[in-house]
Design brief:
There is one protein chain. This protein has six helices and four strands, in the order ββααββαααα. The chain is mostly helical. The protein has two domains: 55 residues; 129 residues, no CATH class. A hairpin with an 8-residue loop joins strand 1 and strand 2. Helix 2 runs parallel beside helix 6 and helix 4 packs across helix 5.
Amino acid sequence: MAKRCRNQNCAKLFEPTFSSLQVCCSYTCAAEWAKTEKGKAHAEKAARKEHRERKAKLKTRSEWLSDVQKEFNAYIRERDKNQPCISCNRQPNDGDLLTGSRWDCGHYRSVGACPELRFNELNAHKQCVNCNRDKSGNIVEYRINLVNRIGRHLLHWLEGPHEPKKYTIAELKELKAIFKKKRKEAEKADE
């Protein structure tokens, strides 16, 4: 069955000689066509990159805050992957937690009550969904186990007053990169 050569400079009819998937009439036409296809692919890739950059410039501070929070939570879950739930000591492989997505990043001092500690690693630990969402953090048990993990001195510091923080977009971008790097390092350390 005759096909039309995909090389726009040639475009003649040909019979495929070595494969039914052949798209060009000769090796020279195929090489020329591949160059133009690579050029298109490169242009499309550059356009996608430009689109991402424009979209990032339009992001609001709250959208960046949300992105950083997602990255921070993922890092904490990865960091504490082999630890039990900070509140109920449920192990990662217990039967009622079927997948890794059943774990949350639980904050001792909630983000609403103490937003200045939202990205503090001492304030966040892996927590099962039951304790974090259903039992509103299971704070009494959380505190008991937190003393064992970080000590009384640091716990008193966490419970004390802190300066309010208002992150700029540049600071949020930097924080996102930091937590992404830490998460990848924690993943590599576990391999």
